[in-house]
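re: that chain from earlier
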Amino acid sequence: MQKALLAASRRPGLRRAVTGNPATRKVVNRFVAGETLDDALAAVRALSADGVQVTLDFLGEDITTRAEAVRTRDAYLALLEGLAPLGLGPAAEVSIKLSACGQALGLGGHDISLELARPIVEAASTIGTTVTLDMEDHTTVDSTLAALADLRKEHPGTGAVLQAMLFRTEDDAKALAVTDSRVRLVKGAYNEPPSVAHQKKKDVDAAYARCLEILMAGPGYPMVGSHDPAIVQRAHELAAQHSRTADSWEIQMLYGIRPDEQRRLAAAGTQVRAYVPYGSDWYAYFMRRLAERPANVGFFLRSLATRS
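^ sequence. v structure.
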């Protein structure tokens, strides 16, 4: 089921069928804050009132022209301009996919994405916040980490994402477990081949645990991207073991998933950040959320049946 849904996220015909179905909107609203900047800022205000920090993702990947990549840059600059009056500082950061900034546009894609990401990082620094570079499938890892190294020269708070399912990630975690380095560790939500990634859940879980220990033991700033209660508990245990203060690490969860637990953890003193996506190009993100948990698929199908 998971592999089928991840493959479906790349099928244009199915994209048109799903996005054109009015009943889909009910389910999408659970995972996506809305399609406009005003929707995103409303979600920021609501989450902030509950003590939950945010990282905002303007949805859009698989772009095919430089003009589309420029529109992504401009959308992020508008987002940061909208965040500035809220005065939240690092409690409201942004996440960007370099593919949405032109990473896959032929031989010059890496340079284009870096060129367009740089003003976003600069604008974030100007209002006292940060940017995290989202990680995508395994073919983008080297390019993304190279862009990270370049951006961190002037903006050391620029964050990275590592996916535990990839065989290489333990080594990447060791390389990034350094002072001032912000790293979000996730299990991974892409359909990766057996040649580069663990395929069994138990192996991915074990790899995540090893990478989490590396990051928690280092001097950087770990961002624990997980909804798994066992991982959340283990993160707290490792934080205590390594005498980490509450402001030296955080839990990150997706918008719309376990919101009560997000509020509970925040009220108990853990730094919690919700990953808040918004925008009209939500299809690929939505399909990956369905793939992550069978319960999400059931919720989707029940919603369609009810609407019918």
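Residues 250 and 271 are 5 Å apart (CA to CA).
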